[in-house]
Amino acid sequence: MAGRKRFIATALTLLAAGAAAGTAGAAETVRLYVAPGGNDSWSGIMPGPRADGGDGPLATLQGARDRLRRLKNEGRPVRGAVVEIQGGDYVLEETFGLSAADSGEPDNPLIYAAAAGQKVRILGGRRVTGFKPVEDPAVRARLAPEAAGHIVATDLRAQGITDFGEVVAGGRRLDVFFNNERLTLARWPDDDFARIKEVVGGEPLTAHGFSGDKIGKFTYEGDRPGRWTGEPEIWLQGYWFWDWADGHQRVESIDTAAGVITLAPPHHHYGYRAGQRWLARNLLCELDRPGEWYLDRSTGMLYLWPPGPVGEAQVWVSHLADLIRLDQASWITLRGLTLAFNRHTAVTINGGKNVTLAGCTIHGSGSRAVCISGGRDHGVVGCDIDDIADSAVSLDGGDRRTLEPGGNAVLNCHIRRFGRFSRTYCPAVGVAGVGNRVANNLMHDAPHIAVMLSGNEHVIELNEIHHVCMETDDAGAFYMGRDWTQRGNIVRYNYFHDIGRFSSWVGVQSVYLDDWTSGTTVFGNLIVRGARGVLVGGGRNNTIENNVFVDCAPAVHIDSRGLGWAKCYFDGRDNTLIARLEAMDYRKPPYSIRYPELLTLYDDEPALAKYNRVVGNICVGGRWLDLVDGLNDRIVEIRDNLVDQDPLFVDAARGDYRLRPDSPALALGFKPIPLERIGLYADPYRASVPPVASAPAQ
Length: 698
Prior knowledge:
Layout: H1 2-16, H2 18-24, E1 28-34, H3 61-73, E2 78-85, E3 88-91, E4 96-99, E5 110-114, E6 120-123, E7 125-128, E8 132-133, H4 137-142, E9 152-155, E10 176-178, E11 181-182, E12 184-185, E13 187-188, E14 194-199, E15 204-207, E16 210-213, E17 217-220, E18 235-238, E19 247-255, E20 260-263, E21 277-281, E22 292-296, E23 301-304, E24 315-318, E25 324-327, E26 330-335, E27 337-340, E28 345-350, E29 353-358, E30 361-363, E31 368-373, E32 379-381, E33 384-386, E34 393-399, E35 404-405, E36 409-411, E37 414-416, E38 429-433, E39 437-439, E40 442-444, E41 451-453, E42 459-461, E43 464-466, E44 475-481, E45 490-492, E46 495-497, E47 508-514, E48 521-523, E49 526-528, E50 532-537, E51 543-545, E52 548-550, E53 556-559, H5 576-583, H6 591-594, E54 613-615, E55 618-620, E56 625-628, E57 637-639, E58 642-643, E59 649-651, E60 656-659, H7 664-667
Parallel strand pairs: 1-2, 2-5, 3-6, 4-25, 5-26, 6-27, 12-22, 25-28, 26-29, 27-30, 28-31, 29-32, 30-33, 31-34, 32-36, 33-37, 34-38, 36-39, 37-40, 38-41, 39-42, 40-43, 41-44, 42-45, 43-46, 44-47, 45-48, 46-49, 47-50, 48-51, 49-52, 50-53, 51-54, 52-55, 53-56, 54-57, 55-58
Antiparallel strand pairs: 7-24, 8-9, 9-23, 10-11, 10-24, 13-21, 14-17, 14-21, 15-16, 17-20, 18-19, 18-21, 19-20, 22-23, 34-35, 59-60
């Protein structure tokens, strides 16, 4: 305590003697405090209010930022600054923004941190109260009889909430939270999907041998939609043609006599086909189970079936789009904060360098948790990210034309329950640019991809990934594809296990090198019950080495799809690959030096999957290898693999896949995988890690 008092006294002296310090040219170390009972007109140099009420902590993050700006504008050099935020809820009225003018210095970053041992919540929502049982006969008549007695309602407009956003649009969608848990917009079916009976739009189409229709008009089984005729704005979400591409569509009309639903244009770009899955949302008449809600946008009345006693609960609606935005800011750390209940992105980092989000918890974002766009050496470190409607982290940095690395990273984070609303192409981490890193993370419980990559020379390592791709087909826990120039990427020392097995066409894989992915190294991964282990879709110069495959089907698949169903990419009908090659000016440095194989690619049977290597792997159970489209071991290098022979794991039944010293794989040159280094580790930034769930995302 004495040390703390000495620090406060020093801060008081520094701030009080600002003119003298400026004259002497001595830089200040500044510590400011923010507290729920603070006041932005106070100095902020003490954690609590002064006895006479004349001074004390600041009230808001904006107040602390503006105080630091004033110090700089007064010409008083600031050597470093810490803004200590006392425990409590801070409801933002506007996005908290930091710019280049707010930057710290390389050895003295600007730090916004939660006070030690205290929970600081930065919230983009509005708390709502005043719930009462529904009395209106017209409303009760629309509810299911078994539900009417359980539904409560409150008037949002009466509480000053008038921006209701949109029903489904990411970034504009209003969500409801009950004691921190996202509730479900009233839907049918409650837990599953309905199926298209027939497509009747009148504009037939055929893709990869599957017949469908371009127009969103289809028949349905049963008579459930007959209940929906009074609903003002019905939205359907469906896997309309492919089980890897979902989409939301508004209902234009329902012909209950003919059993036909017509969707409003624009129609889904892949079309529609019989047998595909769909569900309906935003129906008051389907508010029929605990945890569901509905908002009447014409009256502002919020209806919900509370999952617990509503009088004892905190109910929040998301309101503000973005919580924190840093534009061209550098050397700033945000530490130990909980960010929640926003409609779009919790934290955006645009440009700048060395911004670190450390030990934070991000929960319930309406679109993304973190978006890093450009800049270099930014990090998301030791964070817990949970219940994200779309993608969790978007990580971009580096220059693809010059191959200059970005050095941005996602490290030691627990990311779960992402893709909660938009179900496809919303990964835990989306990586783009050049030279970024994703390491030591735990990612799980999602309908689709965990790591989606584009660009060059990224490293994806030491992550544990499980229970992803749980309701999608033609998907990969790790995924990239369709660009010859995206080379030099490394996927190593990851543990993939219990990946989804849904299949209506292609199936699921742990590592998916789709559509001519080339020049990628897949080394030292442990893949257990990983559906297909690794799929190479027509690419070349890929190395699959020193991996362990357990109960995969198959462990490795390689095809030359350019000789089969994908001939259109080589006969002039589709110029995507050539256009992306030319866009990188591959005939000149740095591409001509770094990737010389591109110079002769189109003179060397480009449709044939040449120069791939499958070397020194272990395969136990399942199936070993599929070579498709005329490939064989003269085209693909296959050697020193231990297949269908006991590798002598220490204790596979208990999940211990270390090799015993007498393993025959070691005699073949297998290099032990550092299993003890995979996944989360303890560090000063780690937030609390919730128990690992093993069920698929709902």
